[in-house]
Structures are given as structure tokens and as C-alpha cells.
Amino acid sequence: MQKKDIDRKEEKNLLRKEIRELRKARTDDEIHAMSRSVTEQVLKLSEYQKAEILYAYMDCKHEVETRDLIRSAWAEGKRVAVPKVQGQEMRFYYITSFEEDLEEGSFGIQEPREGEAAEAEDALLLMPGVAFDPRRHRVGYGGGFYDRFLEKHPGLITVALAFEFQVKEEVPFEEFDIRPQKVVTEQRVLT
User: Fold this and answer.
1) Which site among 30, 55, 67, 139 is 20 to 30 Å from 39 CA-CA?
2) What's the pTM?
């Protein structure tokens, strides 16, 4: 590994630690209120309104909450799928209920029990992340699950959800990192 790669990796790790602390410092009520604002922004997106299928993540540890967004999608007749980690890969499975279709999975995140695999290539994928910049570069959690998934499914429309404090002037990135098409915060939509 070259020195610049080690420096970039260390820079990402420091950024992950900083954002983790910022998220932990927020109360559950603050996270919920900010998440509601993000949800309202997403519901206005033409990409969301046109989508018949929504690939969403299950939030944890003070990420942007997704349950209200998933409930809205169900109420509008959209199909919803959430990810399950299987080894080094991630697959999405359709869910129709939080209580019946989910169990604790990898990394303590709620995952589908299995069920029907989502194979649609014309869906809207909502993705989490640690930090973003105005050019939509993304620092993830370091597992590469979304990059590997999106390499295999390049036709998906991608929207990352973040709090405004997760948007930095610049974040470290690799040329091969896949950027979301939009980043939605409680204050703005980055395109």
C-alpha cells in the first residue's frame, strides 16, 4: 500500500470517528425531527414519486431514520426491499412488515429474514453513508457493500440520505467510488 493510500484510509477513519461522535451527541428526538425533514425532502423528489420499487436501508445508531419513509412508500403502493448481508455481498429482499419480516442481522442492523429477492433494475435505492461533500463523494462505513452492489446494478437510481452535519467541504475518495446521484439532507438536495 502506498503512503497516500494509508493517509486516505486514516483520513476516512478519523472522519468516521468524528461523525459517529456527532451522531451520538444528538438526542433521539433531535434525530427523529431531522429525519422527518429528510423524509419530507425525499417525498418531493421526482425520482421517488416515479419509483414503483424502493430499495431502502434499515437505520441504526442515529443514522437518518427510514421507517417513516418506508411506511409512506407502502401507503403509496410501492414495493420496498431492504438489504441483507451475506458474506461479502449484500442482497435486497422485499418486506411488507417491520414486525414479521425483519430480524437482527449483521452489525446489529435489522435485516429481512429472506423471502422474495428483489431483482428489479428500475428501482430507487436509498443509501446511507458516513460523510459526503457537495460533489456527492461518499465515505461509507468501510465494508464496500454498496459499492460492490452498485457495480452489479448500475441502472439503479441512487439517493443518499444524510444529516447536514455529515456534509463536509471535501471528503477523501477513490476514483472508483460510486457516487450517489443525489444527497438529501434536512436542509437541501445535492445534485
Assistant:
1) 139
2) 0.93
